[in-house]
Design a protein that fits this description.
single chain; 316 residues; alpha+beta; seven-stranded mixed sheet; five-stranded antiparallel sheet; 9 helices; 16 strands; 31% helix; 26% strand; elongated; GNAT_dom; GNAT family N-acetyltransferase
């Protein structure tokens, strides 16, 4: 969404750069600027929330806001020099649009009383009595929502696909493989024996790899030596279809420190585990906006990684 000399993009809390940008904005605007408690910098809702960042034309963060699963907007923070220039309005309208796309019927937020007119211009109305929070009087506001377009199927909430234990993560991974048409991107610190090794998963990988022109499976794998020593079945498949299934090994220290695991397909689906060793994360079957920052990060790491030629040691 472009408005003059700034734009609004999705942010991924699990990504260090995005997370620090959001936290810095909150420190500057909410804590240092408004005197709110230090606890407002981050909380337990952040990993599950959908975050937006506004950036200027040099890509510097100038504003942020979030949408939490309990259907609330919160932590709206815009740098003072950018206030009254449409940044807050742009963030708010995008959050409202995302919530409508999820099929939600209402949004709520708690606003300082002096900001009630701002939110009223965007359709929010008071709900309940005034209350005090962090030393300031606040008003709860609500806005009724309609589907994104008449008769349209509501988009899936990014949290609808389960990724909370080993069984649900495995099931979600298989579903995303089945949804893929021609393209996959996989990031793995380590290729465990139970990952991408079942007959069902290998059949889907083979189907995608042989789906025709444009087929491409990219895998970023930290520990390539262990996968080769263990004789993993995915490595064997990659050796047979090496022109389509490409494996690279990260070499930069910052990339090797990333212990997350994720799977991205060309249907807008993703599975993201902040810690590869823990089967807990988030996933969506169709959420291109949520997938975009993960794909961008994957592409950046891919470009600075090296081909895993050691996995082609069999001479294929």
């Amino acid at each position: 969404m472009k408005l003059e000399n700034f734009h609004v993009v999705s942010a991924d809390w699990a990504r260090d750069g995005d997370r620090e940008a959001v936290r810095q904005l909150r420190r500057m605007v909410l804590i240092d600027g408004l005197g709110l408690p230090a606890a407002w910098e981050f909380d337990d809702a952040d990993p599950q929330a959908m975050h937006l960042i506004a950036r200027d034309d040099t890509d510097c963060p100038i504003g942020a806001a979030r949408l939490t699963p309990d259907q609330r907007i919160s932590r709206v923070a815009v740098l003072p020099t950018w206030q009254r220039h449409g940044v807050g309005t742009a963030l708010l309208r995008q959050l409202v649009g995302r919530a409508s796309g999820f099929g939600w019927n209402e949004l709520r937020l708690d606003a300082p009383v002096e900001l009630v007119p701002f939110y009223a211009r965007e359709g929010f109305v008071p709900a309940g009595e005034l209350f005090e929070a962090a030393g300031r009087m606040h008003q709860t506001l609500r806005r009724a929502l309609e589907p994104a377009s008449p008769g349209a199927r509501p988009a899936r909430d990014p949290g609808l696909l389960p990724a909370e234990d080993r069984a649900s993560v495995d099931a979600t991974r298989r579903l995303l493989l089945a949804d893929a048409r021609h393209i996959l991107a996989i990031h793995l610190p380590r290729l465990d024996s139970e990952l991408y090794s079942s007959a069902e998963e290998l059949a889907e990988l083979r189907r995608i790899a042989t789906s025709g022109r444009g087929a491409r499976i990219r895998i970023l794998l930290h520990d390539t030596g262990a996968a080769l020593r263990d004789g993993h079945r995915l490595v064997a498949l990659a050796q047979r279809l090496s022109s389509v299934i490409q494996i690279r090994r990260p070499v930069e220290e910052v990339d090797l420190a990333n212990r997350a695991g994720w799977l991205l397909n060309d249907a807008g689906g993703y599975l993201f585990l902040p810690d590869h060793d823990r089967p807990q994360g988030r996933a969506s079957r169709h959420d291109r906006a949520g997938q975009a920052p993960l794909m961008q990060q994957f592409d950046e790491v891919w470009e600075r990684s090296v081909p895993a030629t050691e996995l082609l040691a069999l001479g294929l």
